[in-house]
Amino acid sequence: MSERGKSASGVSLRKIALYRRYRPTTLGEVVGQPQVTEILTAAAQSGQFAHAYLFTGQRGTGKTSTARILAHLINNTPYTADDSSADLDIIEIDAASRGSVDDARELRDKSAIAPAAASHKIYIIDEVHMLSTSAFNALLKIIEEPPAHIVFILATTEIHKVPATVLSRVQRFHFRPVSTEIMARHLRQIADKEKIAADDEALNLIAEHGQGSFRDSIGLLDQLSNSGGRVTRSMVEEILGLAPETTIATIIDAITAHDAPTVIATLNDSFSDGVAPALIVDQLLRELGKLAPDKPRLYDLIEKLLEVARSSAPDIKLTAILASAASKSVPTTSAAVATSTKADIELAEIIEQKIAEEGDAFAEKDDSTSKMRTNFAWGDILAEVKNLDEPTVLATLKFADFDYDDGRLTLYFSKIFHRKKADTAKFRNVLGQAFQKLYGSAPKITISASAVRENSAAAQILDIMGGGEVVYNGKT
Q: What is the pTM (predicted TM-score) of this model?
């Protein structure tokens, strides 16, 4: 057991979390916030402190730690990471749990009492945006004109919720998200001090996933170090539920090479492995963001990927977006053109020929073609569903291929999404009503598990591709 896990007497102790052990205790130890620490250091050297401060920025960037350091500097009292030398005149308040008007009035009344021992009574109010409107109003006067012995240090992650009347009465300092490079270096220093064996790639991924938060990044390193083995990139990917780096690279390469089948197959494998679509999107956004400055067309794809989070079926939405991007993308460099093999070109020619023969399987069917295959006009069915004012059913039908034989209608859908939409009582009832009105009887409706009709040109394309879903000019 390491020193941090054992007392001097050898009695096991609960391990202190790494983020607490490495919490800064001086302004010089605050990492990545020079725009804050330089000004506060100058104030400390001159002894000229403001009566109220507001620290803003995302969680985990050092706001609370810096507030504690500043409070001890103002009172000229010692400060350690575990705050064992606590200053009784430094009062911390969590506005999330003590944000009522009664709490604010109590604070206002007690602030009139002189400090117990130090020069100032300092109130650190965390998540100050959680104060009620009435609580803000109760504190406004004392924040504007506090007694000489009072200093307020407010902190918030949501500055837009802090009233303008408060913002105008404080000195504001914004804490920026820490860059991946700075975070990774800090993690390396901690790992070396704690004798945690960790690969640089793993630390970079931890830093990247921490998104500028020291607490999140150091906490994840702490969690991984408990495995007892070396911290590797694959270990980080596994614990975070991320797709392997090679998977993301395969998807991006396939998009560049306009290889939609590979995109679809790779995504399906990832979903089967339990990787959430949202995490794949996050990983793709990071990588595409690095490539986009040199390939501005990628910004269109990035914008579309942001829509996935709002979808009720994110896996289908993500697959549709990436398959479409792969279908529409064209190699833009000689190196990319070189990756288009003769087999790729021949496959593309076969697909184009089959599409020309079959027609667009997802467009509205031509009446004359429908009459040759069936004893009814598909266009009339679509028109009648439209008359029934069922836009959702109509939209789904436009993605259907069909067979009609002796009172049995079989529908085929390339996408599982449309198949599920069709395989409902409402869909069958609306379609049955349309048939009943036009032809006097409703067929038995079957939603096929197959994507295309047997022996159709689309089926032949699927067979050429080795199964899966067909991509027609960006449609699946």
A: 0.60
